[in-house]
Amino acid sequence: xxxxxxxxxxxxxxxxxxxxxxxxxxxxxxxxxxxxxxxxxxxxxxxxxxxxxxxxxxxxxxxxxxxxxxxxxxxxxxxxxxxxxxxxxxxxxxxxxxxxxxxxxxxxxxxxxxxxxxxxxxx
Length: 123
Hints:
This protein is mainly α. Helices cover 84% and strands 0% of the residues. α2 (33-49) packs across α5 (68-86) and α5 packs across α6.
């Protein structure tokens, strides 16, 4: 039981910490949310490429894989795996293969939300 609680603490601390950093970037810089999104995804790819993101995933699990840096991690891992299997062509296709499940879930949930709820224009 004690180990499970500690796991939850690490998940919350890492995931929450990544969200706090993003919120600070929104509040105290002139970066747009789109630039922050791209920065987080690229940071996930770079940290995975140099071997620093895998230990974070081992420590925090979904606290590290759920934020946008985790999407970059999934892209890099997919590309890495595909390069081993198919060579250089895998670098172009592996990222999409590695993230296809997440992309499909996001599109499906967005579609279902659009069918279920009625949108309102901003005023």
